Amino acid sequence: xxxxxxxxxxxxxxxxxxxxxxxxxxxxxxxxxxxxxxxxxxxxxxxxxxxxxxxxxxxxxxxxxxxxxxxxxxxxxxxxxxxxxxxxxxxxxxxxxxxxxxxxxxxxxxxxxxxxxxxxxxxxxxxxxxxxxxxxxxxxxxxxxxxxxxxxxxxxxxxxxxxxxxxxxxxxxxxxxxxxxxxxxxxxxxxxxxxxxxxxxxxxxxxxxxxxxxxxxxxxxxxxxxxxxxxxxxxxxxxxxxxxxxxxxxxxxxxxxxxxxxxxxxxxxxxxxxxxxxxxxxxxxxxxxxxxxxxxxxxxxxxxxxxxxxxxxxxxxxxxxxxxxxxxxxxxxxxxxxxxxxxxxxxxxxxxxxxxxxxxxxxxxxxxxxxxxxxxxxxxxxxxxxxxxxxxxxxxxxxxxxxxxxxxxxxxxxxxxxxxxxxxxxxxxxxxxxxxxxxxxxxxxxxxxxxxxxxxxxxxxxxxxxxxxxx
Length: 471
What we know:
Elements: H1 20-28, H2 31-48, E1 67-74, H3 76-100, H4 105-108, H5 114-118, E2 140-147, E3 153-159, H6 166-179, H7 181-185, H8 195-205, E4 217-220, H9 229-239, E5 242-244, E6 249-252, E7 255-260, E8 263-266, E9 269-272, H10 295-300, E10 305-307, H11 318-321, H12 324-332, E11 339-340, E12 344-345, H13 349-357, E13 362-366, E14 375-377, H14 383-395, E15 400-404, E16 410-415, E17 418-427, E18 429-433, E19 436-439, E20 444-447, E21 463-469
Parallel strand pairs: 1-21, 3-11, 4-5, 4-9, 9-10
Antiparallel strand pairs: 2-3, 2-18, 6-7, 7-8, 12-15, 13-14, 13-15, 16-17, 17-20, 18-19, 20-21
Helix pairs in contact: 2-6, 3-12
Domain Circularly permuted ATP-grasp type: 71-448
Protein name: Circularly permuted ATP-grasp type 2 domain-containing protein
Pfam families: CP_ATPgrasp_2 (PF14403)
């Protein structure tokens, strides 16, 4: 682990200031006591019912995401710099989406190849020329951040369609406060529990002009078999809004209504948690039974706000990700505060040649992949797996990007053998409404629980931690 930045311990054996109290506590607590606290946390999560599903895994329809009881700590200065970079990035991405569905100035300027946009799987021609409220396409963003040294944070990925994980951020905090009240009270930690109120305020601020003073907001879920269904029910409860499925809504005269026991009720804002393809069978997939027929027409008429807007996926495509620094410079005239991970676009011949020559040392991802699927981690792969990916790259290079195997930072983690460093990333959540941009202090830390693993996704065996931002 000497090659990786240890967020708690300095190379000279000292403890970094943010972790001094935690280090002292860890030195004085027994493994048995930590194990008892870990069991208590698991019991609380089971009682609450926090689960997720893994598609295609018949033995894991409902599974607890492993929770590590040792919190991750960030200083106020680290968070301030990171949040400035996040807000800059999200502001530019919203301007980019408004542009590509409008006049396409960034394409005319030759910054991004037009085929990368107009031939993109997630580009929605139906959205061209449609104005969304306040030009905010992505009110809710989850930006994945990795750390490689004391001063360097990279953006690994932008999640702009239906970013998940905020329920775990909130529940992790509640559980930590219950099992370690004394340790929590020894720190001055910025709160996260205001997130549901800020999310509701953000969504209501984007309601159509025709909406009443208190717009009706609903959360649209694909249903109980969705991997993030727990989060959908959690957020509906915390926001105090209705959780609906497509069959609970209908469109009449380009207005969306919700079926209630007291009759039809107009809906002003839909926080959707299902993909574009399934939102409206009249506009997208005709075989979808999850969406609302006529929803796109109501949206285009300006009678309902859909958050995040349809077509936002083009901006979190991994090939488009490589252009985000240029997007920031083009729209804001600023240098990026947070840099991308160095990335090779396999669609470019020179980059493809480099990637093919160095496959055993690289991480290769599909441009539309997510959840840790469809990727090659060269150093952890067999020769057969590498050769299989080599063939895929040669056959369809446009579908892949490649990155160096990053030396992700580590945090102390309680594992079966005791306390050990494990690799982490961070997903902060950024809210953009008509009143401005807000970033919840902390976000969701994901941890690769397997020794040596760099894959933190819960679907690939990762867990989560509470994230403390010191005041």
